Amino acid sequence: MLRRRSGSQLWAPGAVALRCRRPQGHLGEGGRLSIKRLLVGRPLPSSEEGHQRLGKVVALAVFASDAISSTAYATEEILLVLVPLAAMAALEYLVPIAVVVVVLLAIVIFSYRQTIHAYPSGGGSYVVSRDNLGVVPSLVAGAALLVDYTLTVAVSVSAGVAAITSALPTLREERVALCLAFIVVLTAVNLRGVKESGRLFAVPTYVYILTLGSLLAVGLVRSFTGDLAPLPPNEASLDELTHGGALLTGVTAMALMRAFSSGAVALSGIEAISNGVPAFRKPESRNASTTLVWMGVILAAFFFGISVLAHRLRPTVEEGGETLLSLIGGAVFGAGSPPYFLLQAATAAILILAANTAYNAFPSLSSILARDGYLPRQLHNRGDRLVYSNGILLLAGAAALLIVAFDGITTALIPLYAVGVFTGFTLSQSGMVRHHLREREPGWKRNTVVNSVGAAATAAVLAVVVVSKFTIGAWIPAVVIPLIVLVLRAIHRHYEEVAAVLRVPEGYRPLPHTHTVVVLVGSVHQGVLAALTYARSLAPDRLLALSVVTTIEESEAITEQWARHHIDVDLELRYSPYRELTSPVLKYLDELDAAYANDIITVVVPEFVLGRWWEPFLHNQSALLLKARLLFRRNTVVTSVPFHVAGPRPESRATVGFNEPGEARRDEGAPAGPSVSEDGGRRRRLLRRRR
Amino acid sequence: MGLRRRLRALSASVDELDHERLSTRFQGLEPGHTQLGACPERCQVRVVGEVTSLRLVSRGGGTSLEVTIDDGTGCARAVFSGRRTIRGLDPGRAVVLEGVARRERGRLTLVNPGYTLLP
Fold this sequence. Notes:
The complex is a heterodimer of chains A (691) and B (119).
Chain A: E1 19-21, H1 35-40, H2 56-69, H3 74-86, H4 91-118, H5 125-132, H6 135-167, H7 175-192, H8 194-224, H9 235-242, H10 253-263, H11 271-275, H12 284-313, H13 324-334, H14 338-371, H15 389-405, H16 410-413, H17 419-439, H18 444-469, H19 475-502, E2 514-520, H20 526-537, E3 542-549, H21 552-564, E4 570-575, H22 582-595, E5 599-609, H23 622-631, E6 636-644, H24 663-666, H25 676-690
Helix pairs in contact in A: 2-8, 2-12, 2-14, 3-4, 3-10, 4-10, 4-12, 4-17, 4-18, 5-6, 5-17, 6-7, 6-14, 6-15, 6-17, 6-19, 7-14, 7-15, 8-12, 8-13, 8-14, 10-18, 12-13, 13-14, 14-15, 17-18
Chain B: H1 3-11, H2 14-26, E1 44-59, E2 62-70, E3 75-81, E4 94-104, E5 107-111, E6 114-117
Parallel strand pairs in B: 3-5
Antiparallel strand pairs in B: 1-2, 1-4, 2-3, 4-5, 4-6
C-alpha cells in the first residue's frame, strides 16, 4: 500500500516538462572569437569558387612538388637496395637504372597529356577507368590512389624530416613528433584553401629547383674538371649495411628489379596534374598539359643528374642516417656552408610541401567517389573555405597513423608506395586506349599507340614492383586495396538500398492516418499551457495530456491545477510505482498503438530555454532521455515547444494561475504558489532592469 | 530465497516485477472476488486491484473520471460520470469495485461501480 510521504525523496516527475536547452545561433555565436576562424580563415561564399584557380607557375608548385621532390630520395632508395648486395660496386648500376626510369617517365608524361586533353574536367585514373573500363576497375583505381596519396603524405613528410635531421643530427630521435607536427601544419594550411596554400608553396618549390639545379651544375662541372675527388668510403656504415660483407652475394636480376621499383617511386605524383585540371586557369587543358611537360623535364633532369653525380662522387649511403642528397651537398658546397644549409632547408620544405599534392588530390578524389556513392556523402561537402574539409582530415589521420606505425623511416615506407600509383597508371592508360578506340577522334591511331605503350610499360612496372617487393611490404597495399574496394562497394550497396526504399513508385500515395497528440505534463505552468495551445493548433483527432505521477500529492496537485485553469484537455495520470518516467510513457504509447490502427502519435514536450550556461544543470534532464528513446519509435513524432525563460515574453491576455514548475512536489500540502500577477510581474520588472 | 528466484529478480524487467508484486498483493486478499484476467462479462462482478492510472475526461461540459485498476492478472476501467475527483481514489490505492463489467474497445469497463477503499 502506498503511504503518503514527502515527494522530495522521490523521482521528480515535474521534470517531464523540463527538458532544458540553451539558446544557440544568434545569441550564442555572434561576435565571439572563434579559434576555427583564426586557424582556417573567414568562410567563403560558394560564388567565390571560381576564384580558386591556379596559374601555371603556382600550379607547378602545387601539383608538381610531389613528383619533383621524389628526386630527394629516389636515388638513395635505389642504392639502399643494391649496396647491401654489392657494396660500392652498386654505384655502377645507378646510371643505367636512372636511364630506364627517365624513359618510363617520358612514356607516362606523354600518355597523360592525352588524358588531360580528353578529360578537361579532371581525369584521374578513377574517372577514366569508370568511363571506359567499368565499375570494378574504377574502384580498384580509386582505392589504389587513396592508398597512394596517403603514402605520399607519409613518405614525403618522413623524407623531409630526414633532410632536417641530416643537417641537425640532434633531432634524429624526435623525427616522429616532427613528422606529426608537419602534418598538423599542412592540414591547417589546406583547410584554408588551395589558392593560399599554393602561393605559400610556390616559394620553397622554386628555391629547391634553383638550389638543386646549382648543386648539380656546380657538382658536375667540378667533378668532370677534376676539381672534386670522389668521397672516401665510410667503412663503418658500409659494414652496417652489408652486415660485415656477409650478404655480398652480388647483384641478381631480382635485386635489379627491386632497385628499379624503388627508383620508380619518382613517378608518383604525375597523375596529380591530370586530376587537378579544373584547378587551372583557362584554357585548363592546355595550361595543365604545358605544366605537365615542365614538370617532366625538371624531374628527369634532376633524377638523372643526381644519379650521375652520385656515381661520380661515390658517397656511402646509410639507412636512417644522413641522406644521399645531404652527403652530395656537403661534398659539393662544403658541409656546414650556407649553400648546404639552404639545400637542406629547401629539400625539407619541398618534401613537406610535396605532401600538399596529396592534400589536393585525395580530397578531390574522395569527393568524386562520395558523389558517386562509394564513400560517405560527407566527403563531398565543401567546408567553410570551399575545400573538402572532411577529406583533408581523413587523409591527415591516415597519414599520421602510417608515420607512427613505421616510426617515420622513409625506407620502410617505400615498398608500400608505388603499388597504388602504378595500378592507377595502368588502369588509366588502358582506359584511355578504350577511349580512343571508341571515340575515333582525329589522330586516334597515334594516340592509341601512345596510351598502349603507356599501359604496357606501367603494367610491367606494376608487376615488377609487386613481385620484387611483395615480401618486404608490397603485400600491404596488395591486401589493403582490395579491402578498400570491398568497403566502397558495401557503401554503394547501402546507398542503393536506401534509395530503393525511398523511391516513390508510380501512383504511390501514403496511407491516410489519424492523429493522436500526447502532451507530456509535469505540473501546470506557462510552458505547458503554451505546449497545449500548440498541440491544439495541430488539430489532431485525439488530444490528451499525459502525466506520470509517483505520489498521491502529485496526482492531487495536478488534478487541482487542471480544474483551476479550466484546461479543456483530457488528462491521463499514470502511476509509476518504480518512479520511472520513460517506461510508463512508452507503455502508454504502445497501448495507443494497439487501440488505433493507422494512427500517428505526436509527443509534445514542453521545453525551457534557459539563459546562462549553468542553468541547465539546475534542471532535471530526464525528458531528454525520453526524447532520445522516442526518436527511434515507429509512427511517432517527437516535438519540443520551447519556452524562453530569459528574454521578452508575450503578455498574456488574462491573469491566470501560474505555478512554479515542480512546485507541486516540493512541499506537502502547501498552498499553490504565488499568484501570477505577483510573481510574473516581479520577474518582468527584473528582466527589464537587466536589459 | 532460492537461487533461481534471485536470478529472476536480477533479470526481470520492472514490468514483470510489478506484475509479480500486484499478484502477491491481491492473492487471497478478498475472498469471493473475481480475477480480472478471467472476468466474465455482463454480470455482476466483484474485483480488486491497484489504481494505476486516472483520466480526467471533459467533453462539452460533461466530465467524467476514468480509473484503471490492475490486479496482476489484467486490468479494468471504472468510469465515474459527472465526477472530477473522488477523495481517496488515488494512484497506488487498492480498491474493491462492484458492478457490471463489459468490454468497450477491448477494455473491460465498469460504469459507475460501487467502490470500497482498502487500507
